[in-house]
Fold each of these.
Amino acid sequence: MTPAPRPLLPLGKRARVLEMQGVDKTFNGAVMALRKMSLTVNEGDFISLLGPSGCGKSTALRLISGLMPPTAGRIVWEGGEHAGDLGMVFQEPTLMPWATVAQNVWLPFRLRGTAFKVVEGQIMDMLALVGLERFAGAYPRELSGGMKMRVSIARAMVTQPRLILMDEPFAALDEITRQKLNNDLLALKARIGCTVIFVTHSVFESVFLSDRVLVMAARPGRVIRELTIDAPYPRDMVFRTSPAYAAACREASDALVEAMGEAA
């Protein structure tokens, strides 16, 4: 069974998960993707990295995940490197076409050497949370784009990781599906109690999902503004049509225009 999440503390009172401390990343000795990137991630945060193409948002995720090392600076995890594990969701669902939905969600356990039967209950619980329990035996070719992304999210969350990294997971979906998955992601986060870093180009998506929006400029990539979204969770269509949401979107849009000017 999925454990009940711990109550979410207010911003400023949450336990620290990790820090990026003055991180640089240079490719081929010449192209500086990030310069002095600093970021504190606390337990229960939903942080969006918002910025123009080429500002280093995805690079920052890959550094946090350990897929590549920083050129300078440090990434410090509370309790030790990658303490508590992490999950990743990419822009494409990256599902194994020869495996069923349940087998795709089993993959993180399989890589640890855990038999399917041992964790079948956890897999089915997670599929129920994303509304796909009836499709456990289906194959990716039988699913819509939104359903495939739900499988990808279930796979990332099924091991109850400390941190979820999401790299523009809804960018290729139509607006109606995207809004539905935004709603579902917040509901799932509330059920699981995880911490999320989410990369997006969408002002509207970043404001709806996040309690903190970090606006990045490019060449080299760096954070130029941090916006706090004070609206309480859960959020729904009432929030989407509220003056507070409109005001936060205007502030984020202004910051994004500033970022694009900084990158020029």
Note: The helical segments are 57-65, 101-111, 116-129, 145-157, 175-192, 203-209, 237-240, 243-263.
Amino acid sequence: MPYSLHVLRATVRNLLTLAHNIPVVLVVFLLFRVVPTWSWTMPAACALWIFDSFMATLLLGILGARFRDVPPIVASTLQILFFVTPILWAPELMKTGQNWLLLDPFFPLLEILRTPFTGDIVQAAIWPAALAWSAGLTVLTFALFARMRARLAYWV
């Protein structure tokens, strides 16, 4: 079977998990009286999220198959990035250094989907930053996959 099929299976499984969690989000929206606004950027943001999840799964799958220490390192790094990225706090709370948030790979991807839901306007630098991070992830994934494809079956 092609390697991309395994990655696609994991991506679809995660999308189904997301779909099962959408009613919880809807209840929270009702409780806090948040009325999401529809924007043309929402389908593009969702498509970019799905594409990035596919690429990140492929990249981490290759690295995790080769180096057994990668999954715990990724788990620890994601936990740190969860608190550094403005997920639980608003980016406006930062008095100085808001421009540094664009260097966080998760912030632009989070903002392109969060701001239409809250009715805010997406900053001009957010979409180019999200596309740049996606392009970097794609280039890195393709370069690693092209180099390691022949040996990948021996690592699993």
Note: Helices lie at 3-31, 41-66, 70-84, 106-118, 126-148, 152-155.
Amino acid sequence: MPALKPTDFSGRITWLGVVTSEDRAALIAEAREAMDLRFAGIAGSVHGGLTRASCSRVTAQHPRGTPIGNERQVSILSAEEMAEIAARMGLEALDPARLGASIVIEGIPDLSHLPPSSRLQAPSGAMLVVDMQNRPCILPARSIDTVHPGYGRAFKPAANGRRGVTAWVQREGRIALGDRLTLHVPDQRVWAHLDAARRG
């Protein structure tokens, strides 16, 4: 019996991009029509690599800067959640390039809360493994301010719980605009002790 179950949910890719600049404050992704997913992530991406330096998200586990496996190779956002963020900010729309997005998809509800270890598989066979929900940070806020002065400060509260997920490449392959990514989920119940295990 497979431990991963295909579902009837799939998301259509509406946008692809790669962050290539080392200037994190300038955070802007270059739009692409297609891209190759490799075990080290997306070619040319500042988020690529088999390893990365640990950041503030994992200081409870590792001293900052510790080399760890790179589970944050790809940033996946929901078109529907982006529209909700924009509305909460008082904007008509948000440019995914200014959010540092790798992939934007439409059609999977509540994308930001997919179970960790869910998979998204492309027609080419390429497969992404969801690590966990991506938390809002100040870098997109600064980038948004360059085109919508004064609106950047509203990004973090508006994006809370809607920032998408990070993922890593399990199987190499090509993805392109219009492709449908099929959702596969772990065949297990929610851990009954989750609430008790959370601290703070």
Note: The longest helix spans residues 79-89.
